[in-house]
Amino acid sequence: MGLTRDFFILLSQNKVLNSGAKRWGLKLGAQSVVAGTSVEQMVESVKQLNAKGIAATIDNLGEFVFEKQEAIEAKTQILAVIEAIHGHGLDAHISLKPTQLGLDIDYDFCLDNLKEIVAKANDYAIFINFDMEDYGHLQPSFDIIDELSNDYTNIGTVIQAYFYEADENLQKYKDYRMRIVKGAYKEPENLAYQDKKDIDQNYIRLIEYHLLNGKFSSIATHDHHVINHVKKFAKDNNISKDKFEFQMLYGFRNELQLELADEGYKFCTYVPFGVDWYGYFMRRLAERPQNLNLVAKQMFNK
Ligand code: FDA
Question: To which pathway does this protein belong (predicted)?
Fold first, then answer.
């Protein structure tokens, strides 16, 4: 399991495959978990979710960008998504990754790009969620959030439960709308829990803390054990259903997504789209090799 995970994480970081895949269109079964390559295709997917009472957080795929031009293109695309959310009246907000907007190129350049995006979204009362990436990008991402918080309130971020310092960050950012996840990247032992049991335990602890003390919580997991625990915890502690939502990735556990929405829980699907689908798809395979079924089905159903 460990080896398979490492293998797909390595594949997700392969520059040649990442850039080649931009020309392939959605392949290998990625279309089950990526909502198209264009804004128009994404809008159609979000409309279908909204019709089922499910909101969306939209991710224009792309990360680990090292060229200014690429970061500017990403910014332009995200501004177009904001216009589309507003223009089509979608029940949706944005998720984005600071590295896509140039964090690895220059901090101030990235900050300026993000300022433009957050300001535009603010005009339309659209929320921007900063995804959190690997440890090397954690502190600069929080620094950008701190700077933007001086002028804007339509921003929130993610706490990754595998980090030992997750607790400290959750307390510091308790007044933000917060997504809480287990953590997707490969991190060393001196920074992060490695054992699934430890991660799960910390995850539950952090969720409970934010439900009791924090602003709005987005509980982003496909783990029904966690979901069932949260439902019971919320009920036992009189936490109303409008103080939190469940989130899952597009194309994962679709029946459970619907079931939760039908039970009256707020539900928000993370909707990735765009030509930069390859790294995202490989990380999903790393987390759950059973997702290889998607690849196999696709290969035999040409
Ligand atoms: P996990 O993979 O631990 O599985 C636990 C159990 O749940 C499994 O044993 C199985 O029983 C069940 N299960 C899981 N997936 C299933 C499936 N597809 N079908 C059936 N059963 C299934 N990470 C990060 O580092 N930064 C970020 O910004 C984000 N953002 C983010 C947003 C959203 C909306 C989600 C859902 C996730 C993220 N993540 C993330 C990823 C997150 O950190 C984590 O890696 C994955 O969600 C996998 O962990 P889970 O909690 O989903 O279950």
Answer: Amino-acid degradation; L-proline degradation into L-glutamate; L-glutamate from L-proline: step 1/2
How many helices (DSSP H) and strands (DSSP E) are in the chain? 12, 8
Condensed to tens digits (0 to 9), the pLDDT of residues 213-230 reads 988 999 999 999 999 999
Minimal-distance CA residue to ligand 1 atom 18: 252
Neighbours of 2 (CB within 10 A): 8
Within this chain, do residues 176 and 192 fall inside the same structural domain, yes or no?
A: yes
| pLDDT band at 207; cut points 50, 70, 90 | very high
Task: Check: CB of residue 65 under 8 Å from CB of residue 105.
Answer: yes
What ipTM was estimated for this complex? 0.99
Task: Mark whether 131 is an active-site residue.
Answer: yes
Question: How confident is the model over 288-302, as pLDDT tens digits?
Answer: 666 655 555 554 443
How far apart CA 97 and CA 114 sit, in angstroms, is 10
Q: Which domain holds residue 228?
A: 38-276
**Which residues have C-beta within 8 Å of that of residue 20, sequence separation ≥ 6?**
278
What is the amino acid identity at position 115? K
Q: Are residues 17 and 158 in the same domain?
A: no
Q: pTM of the prediction?
A: 0.92
Gap between the Cα atoms of 33 and 39, Å rounded: 16
| Ligand 1 atom with least separation from CA of 185 | 25
- pLDDT per residue over 118-139, tens digit each? 999 999 999 999 999 999 999 9
Is there an atom of ligand 1 within 6 Å of 184 CB? yes
When divided into structural domains, the chain yields a total of 2
- Cα–ligand 1 centroid distance for 182 (angstroms): 7
Query: Whole-angstrom Cα distance, residue 84 to residue 81?
Result: 5
